[in-house]
Amino acid sequence: MPIYKYKVLTKEGLKKEGAILADSYECVYKILRTKNHCPMKIRKVYFASQKVSLDDLLTFFLHINFQLKCGVGINDAIESFTDFQGNGTLNATLLNISDSVKKGESIGEAFEKNHIIFDKVTVGLLKSVESTGNTLEIISNILNFLRMQMDWKNNVKRAIAYPIFIVIVAFIVLILGINFLGPQVISLLQSQGEIPPLTQFALEILPEISKMLLLSMVILSILPWTQRGRDFLLRLMLKSSTIGGLIVKISLWQFCKVLHIALDARLDFLEALDLAIKTIKIRPLQSELKSIRSDIVDGYRVSSSFANGRLIPKEILMAIYVGEEGNSLAESLFHISENQYKEILFGIKSLGQVLSIGLTIFTGLIFIFTLCSLFYPIYNYIEIAGL
Questions:
Q1: Engineering a disulfide at 72: which of 67, 149, 240, 332 sits with its beta carbon 3.0 to 4.6 angstroms away?
Q2: What is residue 113's three-state secondary structure?
Q3: How far is CA 173 from CA 195, 247, 286, 367, 377, in A?
Q4: Under a CB-based contact definition with an 8 Å cutoff, are residues 96 and 113 in contact?
Protein backbone atom coordinates (compact mmCIF):
# COMPACT_ATOMS: atom_id res chain seq x y z
CA MET A 1 0.00 0.00 0.00
CA PRO A 2 1.48 3.40 -0.98
CA ILE A 3 2.41 6.20 1.42
CA TYR A 4 0.86 9.63 1.01
CA LYS A 5 2.18 12.76 2.68
CA TYR A 6 -0.27 15.55 3.37
CA LYS A 7 -0.63 19.09 4.60
CA VAL A 8 -3.96 20.09 6.12
CA LEU A 9 -5.67 22.93 7.89
CA THR A 10 -7.36 21.75 11.08
CA LYS A 11 -10.74 23.00 12.25
CA GLU A 12 -8.85 25.11 14.81
CA GLY A 13 -7.07 26.88 11.95
CA LEU A 14 -3.68 25.21 12.50
CA LYS A 15 -1.46 23.78 9.76
CA LYS A 16 -0.55 20.12 10.20
CA GLU A 17 1.64 17.68 8.26
CA GLY A 18 1.65 13.89 8.31
CA ALA A 19 1.70 10.64 6.38
CA ILE A 20 -0.91 7.98 5.78
CA LEU A 21 -1.27 4.64 4.01
CA ALA A 22 -4.06 4.52 1.43
CA ASP A 23 -4.95 3.04 -1.96
CA SER A 24 -5.45 6.37 -3.77
CA TYR A 25 -5.55 10.17 -3.46
CA GLU A 26 -9.34 9.95 -3.13
CA CYS A 27 -9.04 7.63 -0.10
CA VAL A 28 -6.60 10.00 1.56
CA TYR A 29 -8.91 12.95 0.90
CA LYS A 30 -11.90 11.10 2.41
CA ILE A 31 -9.94 10.03 5.49
CA LEU A 32 -8.76 13.58 6.12
CA ARG A 33 -12.24 15.00 5.64
CA THR A 34 -13.69 12.54 8.16
CA LYS A 35 -11.24 14.04 10.68
CA ASN A 36 -12.59 17.53 9.88
CA HIS A 37 -9.33 18.54 8.21
CA CYS A 38 -9.14 20.71 5.11
CA PRO A 39 -6.52 19.13 2.75
CA MET A 40 -4.04 21.64 1.33
CA LYS A 41 -1.57 19.27 -0.33
CA ILE A 42 -1.43 15.50 -0.89
CA ARG A 43 1.48 13.72 -2.60
CA LYS A 44 2.53 10.12 -3.06
CA VAL A 45 5.93 9.03 -1.72
CA TYR A 46 7.83 5.77 -1.47
CA PHE A 47 9.85 4.08 1.24
CA ALA A 48 13.10 4.25 -0.73
CA SER A 49 12.86 8.03 -1.17
CA GLN A 50 12.87 8.69 2.56
CA LYS A 51 15.41 7.97 5.27
CA VAL A 52 14.86 6.86 8.83
CA SER A 53 17.81 7.70 11.05
CA LEU A 54 19.27 5.56 13.80
CA ASP A 55 18.04 8.21 16.22
CA ASP A 56 14.44 7.72 14.99
CA LEU A 57 14.69 3.94 15.40
CA LEU A 58 16.22 4.34 18.86
CA THR A 59 13.35 6.64 19.88
CA PHE A 60 10.83 4.13 18.52
CA PHE A 61 12.22 1.13 20.41
CA LEU A 62 12.63 3.24 23.55
CA HIS A 63 8.93 4.11 23.37
CA ILE A 64 7.91 0.49 22.72
CA ASN A 65 10.09 -0.75 25.58
CA PHE A 66 8.52 1.75 28.00
CA GLN A 67 4.97 0.96 26.87
CA LEU A 68 5.51 -2.79 27.23
CA LYS A 69 6.84 -2.29 30.76
CA CYS A 70 3.64 -0.36 31.53
CA GLY A 71 1.56 -3.32 30.41
CA VAL A 72 0.47 -1.86 27.03
CA GLY A 73 0.15 -4.28 24.09
CA ILE A 74 2.75 -3.92 21.34
CA ASN A 75 0.18 -2.98 18.70
CA ASP A 76 -1.27 -0.22 20.90
CA ALA A 77 2.28 0.92 21.67
CA ILE A 78 3.07 1.20 17.94
CA GLU A 79 -0.09 3.20 17.26
CA SER A 80 0.54 5.56 20.18
CA PHE A 81 4.07 6.25 18.88
CA THR A 82 2.71 7.52 15.55
CA ASP A 83 0.66 10.16 17.37
CA PHE A 84 3.64 12.32 18.34
CA GLN A 85 6.64 11.54 16.12
CA GLY A 86 7.26 13.50 12.93
CA ASN A 87 9.05 11.18 10.48
CA GLY A 88 6.45 10.60 7.76
CA THR A 89 8.01 7.45 6.33
CA LEU A 90 8.44 5.80 9.72
CA ASN A 91 4.91 6.85 10.66
CA ALA A 92 3.36 5.31 7.57
CA THR A 93 5.47 2.15 7.94
CA LEU A 94 4.35 1.67 11.52
CA LEU A 95 0.71 2.17 10.54
CA ASN A 96 1.18 -0.55 7.92
CA ILE A 97 2.72 -2.87 10.55
CA SER A 98 -0.14 -2.17 12.94
CA ASP A 99 -2.66 -2.93 10.21
CA SER A 100 -0.90 -6.25 9.43
CA VAL A 101 -0.94 -7.29 13.09
CA LYS A 102 -4.65 -6.50 13.31
CA LYS A 103 -5.22 -8.82 10.37
CA GLY A 104 -3.63 -11.69 12.30
CA GLU A 105 0.00 -11.58 11.17
CA SER A 106 2.78 -12.05 13.72
CA ILE A 107 5.05 -9.17 14.77
CA GLY A 108 7.98 -10.72 12.92
CA GLU A 109 6.01 -11.14 9.68
CA ALA A 110 4.65 -7.59 9.88
CA PHE A 111 8.13 -6.10 10.37
CA GLU A 112 9.63 -8.36 7.68
CA LYS A 113 7.42 -6.71 5.04
CA ASN A 114 9.17 -3.41 5.84
CA HIS A 115 12.80 -4.49 5.60
CA ILE A 116 13.78 -1.17 3.98
CA ILE A 117 13.16 0.61 7.26
CA PHE A 118 14.06 -2.22 9.64
CA ASP A 119 17.21 -4.19 8.83
CA LYS A 120 17.27 -7.97 8.54
CA VAL A 121 18.93 -8.41 11.94
CA THR A 122 16.19 -6.48 13.76
CA VAL A 123 13.49 -8.34 11.84
CA GLY A 124 15.12 -11.69 12.62
CA LEU A 125 15.23 -10.91 16.33
CA LEU A 126 11.60 -9.78 16.31
CA LYS A 127 10.59 -13.01 14.58
CA SER A 128 11.99 -14.91 17.57
CA VAL A 129 9.06 -13.48 19.56
CA GLU A 130 6.94 -16.20 17.95
CA SER A 131 9.01 -18.99 19.52
CA THR A 132 9.83 -17.41 22.90
CA GLY A 133 6.85 -15.14 23.53
CA ASN A 134 9.09 -12.80 25.55
CA THR A 135 8.54 -9.59 23.58
CA LEU A 136 9.81 -7.24 26.30
CA GLU A 137 13.16 -9.01 26.67
CA ILE A 138 13.82 -9.01 22.94
CA ILE A 139 12.80 -5.35 22.52
CA SER A 140 15.07 -4.44 25.47
CA ASN A 141 18.01 -6.27 23.84
CA ILE A 142 17.41 -4.53 20.49
CA LEU A 143 17.18 -1.18 22.29
CA ASN A 144 20.47 -1.84 24.09
CA PHE A 145 22.17 -2.76 20.81
CA LEU A 146 20.90 0.43 19.11
CA ARG A 147 22.04 2.53 22.07
CA MET A 148 25.55 1.10 21.85
CA GLN A 149 25.63 1.70 18.09
CA MET A 150 24.52 5.29 18.63
CA ASP A 151 27.13 5.71 21.37
CA TRP A 152 30.14 4.62 19.31
CA LYS A 153 28.97 6.57 16.26
CA ASN A 154 28.66 9.72 18.39
CA ASN A 155 32.16 9.05 19.71
CA VAL A 156 33.44 8.81 16.14
CA LYS A 157 31.81 12.15 15.27
CA ARG A 158 33.37 13.81 18.31
CA ALA A 159 36.76 12.27 17.53
CA ILE A 160 36.88 13.55 13.94
CA ALA A 161 35.21 16.94 14.55
CA TYR A 162 38.44 18.70 15.52
CA PRO A 163 40.57 17.09 12.75
CA ILE A 164 37.96 18.15 10.17
CA PHE A 165 38.05 21.70 11.60
CA ILE A 166 41.86 21.69 11.28
CA VAL A 167 41.65 20.60 7.62
CA ILE A 168 39.16 23.39 6.88
CA VAL A 169 41.47 25.95 8.56
CA ALA A 170 44.41 24.70 6.49
CA PHE A 171 42.35 25.01 3.32
CA ILE A 172 41.27 28.56 4.21
CA VAL A 173 44.90 29.55 4.90
CA LEU A 174 45.91 28.21 1.49
CA ILE A 175 43.08 29.98 -0.34
CA LEU A 176 43.81 33.30 1.37
CA GLY A 177 47.51 32.94 0.68
CA ILE A 178 47.01 32.14 -3.00
CA ASN A 179 44.14 34.44 -3.99
CA PHE A 180 44.83 37.51 -1.84
CA LEU A 181 48.47 37.62 -0.79
CA GLY A 182 49.95 35.96 -3.88
CA PRO A 183 49.10 38.66 -6.46
CA GLN A 184 50.10 41.46 -4.04
CA VAL A 185 53.45 39.84 -3.28
CA ILE A 186 54.15 39.36 -6.98
CA SER A 187 53.31 43.00 -7.83
CA LEU A 188 55.47 44.33 -4.98
CA LEU A 189 58.45 42.11 -5.63
CA GLN A 190 58.41 42.62 -9.40
CA SER A 191 59.06 46.30 -8.77
CA GLN A 192 62.34 45.20 -7.17
CA GLY A 193 63.11 43.08 -10.19
CA GLU A 194 63.58 39.86 -8.25
CA ILE A 195 61.23 37.27 -6.74
CA PRO A 196 62.73 35.06 -3.97
CA PRO A 197 62.93 31.35 -4.94
CA LEU A 198 60.85 30.32 -1.91
CA THR A 199 58.07 32.73 -2.88
CA GLN A 200 58.15 31.52 -6.50
CA PHE A 201 58.02 27.91 -5.32
CA ALA A 202 55.11 28.68 -2.96
CA LEU A 203 53.06 30.33 -5.69
CA GLU A 204 53.59 27.27 -7.86
CA ILE A 205 53.01 24.56 -5.24
CA LEU A 206 50.28 26.09 -3.03
CA PRO A 207 47.60 26.11 -5.79
CA GLU A 208 48.27 22.40 -6.41
CA ILE A 209 48.00 21.57 -2.70
CA SER A 210 44.75 23.53 -2.40
CA LYS A 211 43.31 21.74 -5.44
CA MET A 212 44.24 18.37 -3.95
CA LEU A 213 42.64 19.29 -0.62
CA LEU A 214 39.48 20.55 -2.30
CA LEU A 215 39.23 17.48 -4.54
CA SER A 216 39.75 15.15 -1.55
CA MET A 217 37.06 16.93 0.45
CA VAL A 218 34.58 16.75 -2.45
CA ILE A 219 35.27 13.04 -3.09
CA LEU A 220 34.98 12.14 0.60
CA SER A 221 31.67 14.00 0.84
CA ILE A 222 30.23 12.26 -2.27
CA LEU A 223 31.39 8.67 -1.68
CA PRO A 224 29.04 7.82 1.24
CA TRP A 225 25.97 8.61 -0.90
CA THR A 226 26.22 5.43 -3.00
CA GLN A 227 26.72 1.77 -2.09
CA ARG A 228 29.74 1.47 -4.42
CA GLY A 229 31.21 4.59 -2.88
CA ARG A 230 30.74 3.21 0.64
CA ASP A 231 32.33 -0.09 -0.39
CA PHE A 232 35.30 1.73 -1.94
CA LEU A 233 35.70 3.92 1.14
CA LEU A 234 35.58 0.83 3.36
CA ARG A 235 38.28 -0.94 1.30
CA LEU A 236 40.40 2.21 1.44
CA MET A 237 40.11 2.52 5.22
CA LEU A 238 40.83 -1.18 5.74
CA LYS A 239 44.27 -0.66 4.17
CA SER A 240 45.21 1.48 7.16
CA SER A 241 46.41 -0.66 10.07
CA THR A 242 44.98 1.73 12.68
CA ILE A 243 41.64 2.65 11.09
CA GLY A 244 41.23 -0.77 9.46
CA GLY A 245 41.90 -2.55 12.75
CA LEU A 246 39.26 -0.42 14.47
CA ILE A 247 36.69 -1.17 11.74
CA VAL A 248 37.35 -4.92 12.04
CA LYS A 249 36.97 -4.68 15.83
CA ILE A 250 33.63 -2.88 15.44
CA SER A 251 32.43 -5.54 12.97
CA LEU A 252 33.40 -8.36 15.32
CA TRP A 253 31.70 -6.58 18.23
CA GLN A 254 28.47 -6.32 16.21
CA PHE A 255 28.78 -10.00 15.33
CA CYS A 256 29.27 -11.10 18.95
CA LYS A 257 26.56 -8.77 20.26
CA VAL A 258 23.91 -9.92 17.78
CA LEU A 259 24.89 -13.57 18.31
CA HIS A 260 24.49 -13.08 22.06
CA ILE A 261 21.08 -11.36 21.68
CA ALA A 262 19.83 -14.05 19.29
CA LEU A 263 20.96 -16.90 21.55
CA ASP A 264 19.52 -15.10 24.57
CA ALA A 265 16.22 -14.99 22.66
CA ARG A 266 16.51 -18.81 22.42
CA LEU A 267 16.97 -18.92 18.66
CA ASP A 268 18.56 -22.02 17.17
CA PHE A 269 22.35 -21.56 16.99
CA LEU A 270 22.51 -21.67 13.19
CA GLU A 271 19.67 -19.12 12.91
CA ALA A 272 21.46 -16.90 15.42
CA LEU A 273 24.73 -17.31 13.50
CA ASP A 274 23.02 -16.36 10.22
CA LEU A 275 21.69 -13.15 11.80
CA ALA A 276 25.10 -12.28 13.22
CA ILE A 277 26.84 -12.87 9.87
CA LYS A 278 24.46 -10.37 8.23
CA THR A 279 26.01 -7.59 10.34
CA ILE A 280 29.43 -8.14 8.72
CA LYS A 281 30.25 -5.85 5.76
CA ILE A 282 33.92 -6.87 5.39
CA ARG A 283 33.94 -9.53 2.68
CA PRO A 284 36.97 -11.61 3.80
CA LEU A 285 35.58 -11.78 7.34
CA GLN A 286 32.08 -12.57 6.08
CA SER A 287 33.44 -15.37 3.86
CA GLU A 288 35.37 -16.86 6.76
CA LEU A 289 32.30 -16.84 9.01
CA LYS A 290 30.23 -18.52 6.30
CA SER A 291 32.93 -21.20 6.03
CA ILE A 292 32.80 -21.65 9.82
CA ARG A 293 29.02 -22.07 9.55
CA SER A 294 29.49 -24.79 6.93
CA ASP A 295 31.85 -26.65 9.26
CA ILE A 296 29.28 -26.50 12.06
CA VAL A 297 26.59 -27.85 9.73
CA ASP A 298 28.96 -30.70 8.84
CA GLY A 299 29.06 -31.70 12.51
CA TYR A 300 32.17 -29.99 13.88
CA ARG A 301 32.10 -28.41 17.32
CA VAL A 302 31.46 -24.66 17.41
CA SER A 303 34.77 -23.85 19.12
CA SER A 304 36.73 -26.12 16.73
CA SER A 305 35.11 -24.51 13.67
CA PHE A 306 35.94 -21.00 14.89
CA ALA A 307 39.49 -22.05 15.78
CA ASN A 308 40.11 -22.87 12.11
CA GLY A 309 39.50 -19.23 11.17
CA ARG A 310 42.39 -16.83 10.55
CA LEU A 311 40.63 -13.52 11.25
CA ILE A 312 38.94 -14.32 14.57
CA PRO A 313 40.89 -12.90 17.56
CA LYS A 314 42.07 -15.24 20.32
CA GLU A 315 39.89 -13.60 22.99
CA ILE A 316 36.74 -14.37 20.97
CA LEU A 317 37.90 -17.95 20.35
CA MET A 318 38.53 -18.39 24.09
CA ALA A 319 35.09 -16.95 24.96
CA ILE A 320 33.38 -19.33 22.52
CA TYR A 321 35.36 -22.30 23.85
CA VAL A 322 34.57 -21.48 27.50
CA GLY A 323 30.91 -20.80 26.66
CA GLU A 324 30.53 -24.08 24.78
CA GLU A 325 32.23 -26.09 27.50
CA GLY A 326 30.11 -24.53 30.23
CA ASN A 327 26.88 -24.57 28.21
CA SER A 328 26.69 -20.79 28.61
CA LEU A 329 27.62 -19.51 25.16
CA ALA A 330 25.19 -16.54 25.26
CA GLU A 331 26.61 -15.32 28.59
CA SER A 332 30.19 -15.80 27.40
CA LEU A 333 29.47 -13.79 24.22
CA PHE A 334 27.87 -11.06 26.33
CA HIS A 335 31.03 -10.62 28.40
CA ILE A 336 33.38 -10.63 25.39
CA SER A 337 31.19 -8.11 23.52
CA GLU A 338 31.24 -5.79 26.56
CA ASN A 339 35.05 -5.96 26.69
CA GLN A 340 35.27 -5.37 22.96
CA TYR A 341 33.01 -2.34 23.24
CA LYS A 342 35.28 -0.73 25.86
CA GLU A 343 38.25 -1.33 23.55
CA ILE A 344 36.35 0.25 20.65
CA LEU A 345 35.59 3.42 22.63
CA PHE A 346 39.23 3.64 23.73
CA GLY A 347 40.41 3.06 20.14
CA ILE A 348 38.12 5.79 18.79
CA LYS A 349 39.40 8.24 21.40
CA SER A 350 43.04 7.37 20.65
CA LEU A 351 42.48 7.68 16.90
CA GLY A 352 40.89 11.11 17.39
CA GLN A 353 43.91 12.26 19.40
CA VAL A 354 46.38 10.98 16.80
CA LEU A 355 44.47 12.65 13.95
CA SER A 356 44.20 15.89 15.91
CA ILE A 357 47.94 16.01 16.64
CA GLY A 358 48.95 14.99 13.11
CA LEU A 359 46.65 17.44 11.34
CA THR A 360 47.54 20.25 13.77
CA ILE A 361 51.23 19.76 12.89
CA PHE A 362 50.32 19.64 9.17
CA THR A 363 48.31 22.88 9.41
CA GLY A 364 51.09 24.51 11.42
CA LEU A 365 53.64 23.61 8.74
CA ILE A 366 51.41 25.05 6.02
CA PHE A 367 50.97 28.25 8.03
CA ILE A 368 54.74 28.56 8.65
CA PHE A 369 55.47 27.89 4.97
CA THR A 370 52.90 30.52 3.92
CA LEU A 371 54.32 32.98 6.46
CA CYS A 372 57.90 32.52 5.27
CA SER A 373 57.12 32.55 1.57
CA LEU A 374 54.47 35.30 1.38
CA PHE A 375 54.37 37.39 4.56
CA TYR A 376 58.12 37.68 5.09
CA PRO A 377 58.88 39.05 1.57
CA ILE A 378 56.24 41.77 2.13
CA TYR A 379 57.78 42.63 5.52
CA ASN A 380 61.26 42.65 3.99
CA TYR A 381 60.09 44.90 1.15
CA ILE A 382 58.51 47.38 3.61
CA GLU A 383 61.71 47.41 5.70
CA ILE A 384 63.89 48.04 2.64
CA ALA A 385 61.61 50.74 1.35
CA GLY A 386 61.76 52.44 4.76
CA LEU A 387 57.98 52.44 5.22
A1: 67
A2: coil
A3: 21, 33, 44, 7, 17
A4: yes
pLDDT band at 49 (very low <50, low <70, confident <90, very high): very low
Q: Domain boundaries in the chain?
A: 3-45, 54-146, 147-387
The CATH class given to the 54-146 domain equals mainly alpha
In the β-sheet with 15-21, what is the strand arrangement from edge to edge? 15-21, 3-9, 38-45
Phi, psi (5° rounding) for residue 375? -70, -45
Count of C-beta atoms within a 10 Å radius of residue 89:
22
- The tens digit of pLDDT for each residue in 268-283 reads 889 889 988 988 888 8
Tell me the H-state helices in 298-387: 302-307, 314-325, 329-370, 376-385
Amino acid type, 35: K
Q: What is the pLDDT of residues 318-367, one digit of tens each?
A: 999 999 888 889 899 999 999 999 999 999 988 888 888 888 888 788 77
Name the residue type at position 66. F
Task: Using alpha carbons, list the distances in angstroms from residue 353 to 217, 234, 343, 356, 364.
Answer: 21, 21, 15, 5, 16
Distance, in Å, from the CA atom of 51 to the CA atom of 164, rounded to the nearest integer, reads 25
Rounded-to-integer distance, Cα 255 and Cα 311, Å: 13
* Identity of residue 202: A
3-class secondary structure, 296? helix
Q: Which amino acid is at 49?
A: S
d(C-alpha 216, C-alpha 169), whole Å:
15
Using one digit for the tens of pLDDT, what is the confidence trace for 111-169? 877 666 777 777 877 777 666 667 788 888 888 888 888 888 888 888 888 888 887 77
